[in-house]
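This section describes the prediction task in plain terms. A model, or a person checking by hand, is given the sequence of a single protein chain and must write out its three-dimensional structure as a string of tokens. No templates, partner chains or ligands are provided. The sample shown here is typical of the held-out split.
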Amino acid sequence: MYPFYLGIDVHLKRTYVVLMDNMGHIIDERRLPNDEFEQYLKDEVSHNTYAVLEATRNWPFMYDMLEDHVERVELAHPKELKAIASAVLKDDPIDSRTLAHLARLNRQRRTNRLCGSEGGPGPAALHSPSRVASSSTNPGEEPHPCGSG
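The expected answer:
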């Protein structure tokens, strides 16, 4: 168990974050421009934090920043998160809170574990757009996030 959990909903220009303690109490919740995220981590987020962000197309820069500032980072597959994908009310605050709670309860499907633990490339391999784009062998098939299968 970690003392802090950070749920992150990443967008192209802004990010919504929810920081909570291990009892589920929200410590901080805000929307901030992506270029202010690193300073937010330095000022507001303890190293003893477990961070979870959706594996959307904008995740690589955020993952790299988080790796330098928190103890654990996980990518959650957005389509596999039933709590988010099937939600009737869906917005950035709800998604971020849900990610933080799922981390706290250890209930999210981890994209990076699927990539790293089965012998495939780890999360850093996704930085190459050509690797992901060339990973699909069938037209119209969604590419696997690790570049294989």
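For orientation: Residues 108-149 have pLDDT under 50 and may be disordered.
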